[in-house]
Amino acid sequence: MGIPNKAGVFTILVMIGSMDLCNAQLKISKWQVGINGGVFVYMGDLTPSPLGSFKTLKPVAGLYVSRVLTPSFILRTNLVYGLLAGNESLYSSPAYRQQRNLSFSSSVKEISELFVWNMYGNNNNEIGKRISPYLLGGLGLSFLHVSRSSNLNKSFFVNDPRVEAGVAADLKNTPPGMILILPVGAGVEYYLFEKVSLTAETIFRYTFTDYLDGFSLAANPEKKDFYQSYTVGLVYKFNKVGDNVACPVLKY
Q1: At 88, which CATH number?
Q2: Among 163, 158, 177, 154, CA closest to 216
Q3: How far apart, in whole angstroms, are the C-alpha atoms of residue 71 and residue 201?
Q4: 131 belongs to a structural domain
Q5: Domain that holds residue 64
Q6: 71 preceded by cis ω (within 30°)?
């Protein structure tokens, strides 16, 4: 192969420069928006299951805006509205639950800031994988409006006065209207199209209160109350803005 002459070298340099100019017209947006919906699961004193009260599932819906930091990491602002509920009368075992018969319901308005780790480094489908798992965690505030009730069978607890005294004391306490939460969760993203993805995720909210359900002393004051969401949703990615400019055809 011969050594290029001066004209050939000049042509190659022009082609490289033209490619850079053309590629410079393509911009990748850092912003994404998402919506999701599903169910809230209450986890506290009014259910015997450590996984939560699946007998009192309530709806939840969310909206979020995300800023892509790198192919692996996203900062996400999350807004959520839903309901929570628990009802001991739904559980026949152990027997004391239907006799204590505590129940509650609450609306939940939540705002949180989440740090999302895409485990494949594929936030904008950089590696072309349709499925990408992710983990997330952060900090938030939950605004509650708790309504509670007790139809205590006093005769059943005649040998355990702590229960009646606990119910009376709990009903004198005002449930919190706002609590700090630590959300942690996991999800999976499936690319439907270039700019649209389907998501499925679960987020557990760690709280610092035992009065999420309005009761503590009457039940188990040693344990905090929590809640969890299971949702599916859609994400829209503002991937490409601006137009590609066709590279000029070089003639030489």
Answers
A1: 2.40.160.20
A2: 163
A3: 19
A4: yes
A5: 26-241
A6: no
What tokens were used for 227? 């809640």
pLDDT 10s digits, 177-228? 999 999 999 999 999 988 999 999 999 999 999 999 999 999 989 999 999 9
Residue 164 lies in a domain: yes
pTM across the whole model:
0.84
Average pLDDT over residues 54-69: 97
Cβ atoms of residues 224 and 210 within 8 Å = yes
DSSP 158: T
Collapsing DSSP states into helix, strand and coil, what is residue 147? strand
Q: Terminal CA-to-CA distance of the chain, rounded, Å? A: 19
Total number of domains constituting the chain: 1
Residue 169 has phi, psi (to 5 degrees) of -70, -40
Sign of the C-alpha dihedral, residues 51, 53, 54, 59?
negative
In a domain, 166, yes or no: yes
Strands 31-43 and 58-68: antiparallel
Count of Cβ atoms closer than 10 Å to residue 209 Cβ: 18
pLDDT at residue 7, as a whole number: 54
Which residues pair with residue 87 across a beta bridge?
103
> Which residues in the chain belong to E strands, given as ranges?
27-28, 31-43, 58-68, 73-87, 102-118, 131-150, 178-191, 196-207, 226-237, 240-241
CB 203 within 8 A of CB 136: yes
DSSP state of 151: -
